[in-house]
Amino acid sequence: MGILLLAGALALDFSMRPVITSMSGYQAKITVTGVINQAASGIFSSLDSEYNDFVTLQTNGEGNITSIETNTLHINQVQTELTQQIVDALVASDQQTVQIPLGTLLGVQLFSGRGPEIEIKVVPVGNVKVVTESRFSSAGVNQTLHQVVVSVDASAMAIIPGYSTEVEVHTEYILAETMVVGSVPDSYAQIITEGESAIPFIANQLQT
């Protein structure tokens, strides 16, 4: 009898583990994305910069664009501050908990929102990686949209009793943009800068 009960428990765990880890990972991703967005919003709302502070368009006597040059120093300063603010925010929110009904966690629509609340710990892990790049996209006849985009990648661990899963979070923000009228030069000063900072992490947090 004991063996049958054990086999049944293992079979149930095997079938439900993917659902539970997926749902808890989803909640962790929402939590971390919210923390990152709040930190980024604080930086960008206080940023007193315009497109020309990041990018300079050089034209010839006929008004055609001959080169697109980036202010790497200014971009790197913003990127460094953003990276640090995000790391600080994640550390401050370390071991946030999310309460989710058991029915929702099991992924069964009929039981969604029902059952006892299960606590999910969200622990930031690894590094925060911030990359800035230049993007061009067609915006109509003889028009090109130029954007300076900041991409943020971070990771977190969702932990509930007996289960844990790591999730990756990716968010993007437009640092500056403008509409370029006329042809874009074949060569330009592409922005490819990258910042990375480790999240202070104590290994035994996973045991609590």
Detailed description of the structure:
The protein is α+β, with helices and mostly antiparallel strands and 208 residues long. It is built from four helices and seven strands. It has helices at residues 2-45, 51-54, 72-92, 102-105; strands at residues 55-59, 65-70, 96-101, 117-138, 143-160, 163-181, 192-198. The strands form two sheets. Strands 3, 4, 5, 6 and 7 form a five-stranded antiparallel beta sheet that branches. A two-stranded antiparallel ribbon has the order 1-2. Helix 1 crosses helix 3 (72-92). The chain starts with a helix and ends in a 10-residue tail after the last strand. 22% of the residues are buried. Residues 8-14 and 201-208 have low confidence and may be disordered.
Features:
two-stranded antiparallel sheet; elongated; alpha+beta; 208 residues; disordered C terminus
Main sheet?
5 strands, antiparallel
Q: Which structural class is indicated by helix and strand composition? A: alpha+beta
**N/C terminus separation:** 33 Å
CA radius of gyration: 23 Å
Low-confidence stretches: 8-14, 201-208
Proportion of residues in extended strands: 35-45%
Query: Tally the helices: what do you get?
Result: 4
The outline comes out as elongated
In short:
With 208 residues, the chain is α+β, with helices and mostly antiparallel strands.
Topology:
Elements lengths: L1 H44 L5 H4 E5 L5 E6 L1 H21 L3 E6 H4 L11 E22 L4 E18 L2 E19 L10 E7 L10
Antiparallel strand pairs: 1-2, 3-4, 4-5, 4-7, 5-6
Helix pairs in contact: 1-3
